[in-house]
Design a protein that fits this description.
The chain is of the alpha/beta class and 285 residues long. It has helices at residues 3-20, 63-77, 95-110, 127-134, 157-164, 189-198, 202-214, 227-241, 247-261, 266-279; strands at 35-39, 44-47, 85-89, 114-118, 140-145, 175-181, 218-222. It is globular and about 90 Å long. The termini are far apart. The model is unreliable at 195-201 (pLDDT under 50).
């Protein structure tokens, strides 16, 4: 077999492999789109053209934290100083919904100039790479991590501490960090207690872990809602979507719904509305 034939065969093999390989995804334009998801394994951002969010006016029972986060986000979008924010507390009370709703609401005021970038909790170690990309754009970016927490011997939190406040390079001025968590200090209580019992210097060990939440200038607490607040959420949804049901029927069925869930929250209220809308053939547009 001549060298020419071997070369031709290798060329055909290479062409075949190239056709089988998936095309290289296009790099999204940070100066064009307004929402992205970070894929650390590919070291790239994916544009999200249609963000799954609810209008901020539809979030009830969290008025104080809603106003605080919206004001903070608006100041940042306009180029003024603002704080990193930790939204912590009860499940289903609208923490992640509020971040997305505040982003959409503020963008209506600033002409879609604010970018929202979601990073998954397991991709926190890749933050330095992501920040290098975000630092190259002139637009302000909110870096969002949903359900952030740390367990066991996980020391990923050290990377996050450096990014939030510290390190030689620091965080780019056009980047703010928002996170949601069920834990105020982002770590289980037994992790903190274990540090106290096993460390040579317990106070220093605990301080190392607890100080992560101190990097957030805003601590916004979300607490389980009362029955009156729960029912008011449902009334607002019913009025907004014109769902045909009487107050008496709504009250009875809504209370029964919480008994099947064992909790009251914004999420439970919305699940009840979906059940009610489906049963009454009402569209939730």
């Amino acid at each position: 077999m001549t060298k020419q034939i071997i070369a031709e065969q290798l060329t055909r093999i290479a062409d075949s492999l190239e056709r089988l390989a998936p095309p290289t995804p296009a790099t999204p334009d940070l100066n064009k789109d307004t929402a992205f998801v970070w894929h650390a394994d590919q070291n790239r951002l994916q544009s999200i053209p249609n963000v799954n969010y609810v209008d901020i006016s539809m979030l009830h029972g969290i008025d104080r934290v809603k106003d605080t986060l919206t004001d903070n986000t608006l100041r940042f979008a306009k180029g003024f100083p603002a704080n990193n924010a930790l939204l912590w507390g009860a499940r289903g009370m609208g923490k992640s919904s509020l971040v997305k709703a505040a982003h959409a609401h503020v963008n209506k005021e600033v002409g879609n100039s604010l970018v929202l970038v979601e990073i998954h909790r397991e991709d926190i170690p890749s933050l330095p790479d992501l920040l290098k990309i975000l630092g190259k754009t002139n637009r302000n970016c909110i870096l969002f991590c949903d359900d952030l927490s740390f367990d066991g011997e996980d020391d990923t939190y050290k990377s996050l501490k450096t990014v939030l406040e510290g390190g030689l390079e620091g965080r780019p001025k056009n980047v703010l960090f928002y996170a949601t968590s069920n834990r105020r200090h982002l770590m289980r209580r037994d992790m903190i207690e274990n540090e106290r019992s096993t460390a040579i210097s317990p106070s220093e060990a605990v301080e190392e872990k607890v100080s992560l939440s101190d990097r957030f200038g805003l601590w916004l607490g979300f607490h389980s809602c009362s029955q009156d607040e729960y029912l008011e959420m449902i009334r607002q949804y019913i009025a907004h979507y014109n769902i045909p049901i009487s107050e008496k029927e709504m009250h009875k069925e809504a209370i029964e719904w919480t008994h099947t869930r064992g909790a009251r929250s914004g999420r439970v209220a919305w699940q009840f509305i979906q059940e009610l809308a489906g049963r009454t053939e009402t569209l939730l547009d």
